[in-house]
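FAQ: What does a ligand-bound record look like?

Like this one, built around alpha-D-galactopyranose:
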Amino acid sequence: MRQLAGLLSVWLLAGTYSFSQNAISYDASQHVWQIHAGEMSYVLGVNDKKALQTIYWGPRLEKGASFPTPKQLPETASFDPGVATTPLEYVGWGGGLPYEPTLKISFPDGNRSLLLEYVDAKVNGDALEITMKDALTPIYVRLFYQAAPQGILARWSRVENRGKEKITVEQAESATWNLAPRSTYELSSLTGRWGAEWQLQTEAMHQGTTILESRRGSTSHQTNPWFAIASRGETTENAGPVWFGELGWSGSWRITVEQTQAQRVRITGGTNPFDFSYPLAAGESLDTPKFYAGYTAKGHGEASRILHRFQREQILPQRPTPRLRPVIFNSWEATEFAVDEQGQIALAEKAAKLGVERMVIDDGWFGKRNNDRAGLGDWNVNPEKFPSGLKPVIDRVHALGMDFGIWVEPEMVNPDSDLYRKHPDWAMNFPGRPRSEARNQLLLNLARKDVRDYVFSFLDKLVSENDIAFLKWDYNRNWSEPGWDVVPLDQQKEIYVKYVENLYSILSDLRKKHPKLEIESCSGGGGRVDLGILQYTDEVWPSDNTDALDRLVIQDGFTHAYSPNLMMAWVTDVPNFLDKRVIPLEFRFLAAMSGSLGIGGNLNKWSPDDMSTGTRLTTFYKQIRPVVQLGELHRLMQPEESETNAVQYITADRSSAVVFAYLHSQHYGRPFPTIRLEGLDPAASYRLTPLDAAKVTGLPVERNGSQLMGEGVQFNLRGDYDATALRLERIR
Ligand code: GLA
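The answer part, i.e. the structure of the complex:
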């Protein structure tokens, strides 16, 4: 039954296009495959040199579209051979390729050249698998293509050594995507740092290479593995072409975006080849991460919505119908390391009064963790803080009608910990070299099986012995000395792959054993958000920056790449810890309510007025939550552009919507701009229910959809940090 409901929702959300079972068609006479995914089609074929060539990536093609066998493009000069001028799907380094290879191998005889040729292909519904082989050696590459009805094509590959001799893979990317020549391309990416993640950056493309990457061992705050390429002067939020994609990998990664001399664009991505090599002995293989991409003609807004639907229906552990995120309380900003039984129970009692559904104890509950200098690695409950273990708190939390969650940082160790004293060799390091600490901690080498097993077993024990519904899984530093000295020298750089594989296997095994457990991916804020970790985690912590004004920009950037239901957002106290800004409570709530609402303030200090504002807004949030978390997001007015911003969420069937409007600071008494709504049913009537009637001007109870989209809504926001929300329900 649940499956049936899931299928039904995929079908309903698939929206206006028809999606046939035959997502992939093959024209045997021309050796060309057409892949259809949502509103996108992707066409590739085998050319006259037996190489796999990209033919088309753009709007969905209707029946009747046909393509001749592709031909390798001619050399344009003796300096630009065919391998450089031709858009190749997956290209080995060789033949004078001057651009980024998808695969680079060195052979024991000194050869480093590869010439991948087509062998055969299999189509199975919406999956295509193509086998290529090096012309002279038994090196095979299997290329996988998986179309999803939301409009996403996943590509990844498997490099197989079917020979007798060991080879070394120096670079194995997931895929290369090619765009036709155009002079107006512009590239958007999401950059940032701790406390300031998700800054949208857009630049005109020009001949040359832009590298988006992390060399930090994990996804990083610095750049998220997402890209969007649009057409300057043509693409807006609501119209124009966008080619976009993201990687499913939580280790060091790289996306290389090149504009060739012929103004083609090549996008090659996967694990980062920096400091990488991976030996493949006879019979061994290496799988690359998935590289997902899509296309829309409807601007950046629709590109985001395609990704949001895809994540919810195809990626998240609770796919295709993730359950609504509960309203949480988290202790971090309220008590930091000073957590104890009485204090947490007192906070839980107040949180329950606000309508909170999940109480989460953050850092500080274990080992000798009284500050960030000690205790990581010692995952036993601190007996001074919790003399009878966690049970009394958990029982009280349950009695208050909430479930219970707890913070862990499983991959880390403080040198001042029993774990480190017992297993100093478990810390990632180059033996005999100075090791770099960050936040007084070291990384455990999760690539090691003993470390992997230890991490799984303490987490399993913690969750088995206590009624824990939720783990906030943190990760608070980058890699520094990535040594793995207990394996042979030529395998030591496998650490970049094996670490991440073991991380995924721990998460996966934990979820299998504890099917009700939910997990948040946190890395000092948004340092580990990607489609790899999201297969095992239900939500993420986008940033440690909880200042509501900064957060509006952070959340705007976040939603370009990830769904709002993933986006935990807490209401915290003022002055904000980071920038000391003082923002009224209602504005702080409304900023957090545009994602998954959480509360992180010290409730002991909240006045009766604060408590009643909090209760009123939490109640309102629960009413709009399905629309916010699982609806379609429209960024009506973006926060970087002015002193105002507005977002709208609407269900796929257009029956319910909610609009949030924010005025950051009013200048010159300027009225708040009229907001035209989007995506409504133009012929339907909607009932309008404002959160605060005084903040919407001249609002009738009912209004027609076309009018709301044409004439718009006038919000009456004044002064600094004024905000409100408006609900819409279709009545006929
Ligand atoms: C990281 C997280 C915070 C908090 C602290 C605890 O910085 O991002 O939310 O959990 O660690 O030490």
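Follow-up question: can I read anything off the structure? Yes, for example: The two ends are 30 Å apart (CA to CA).
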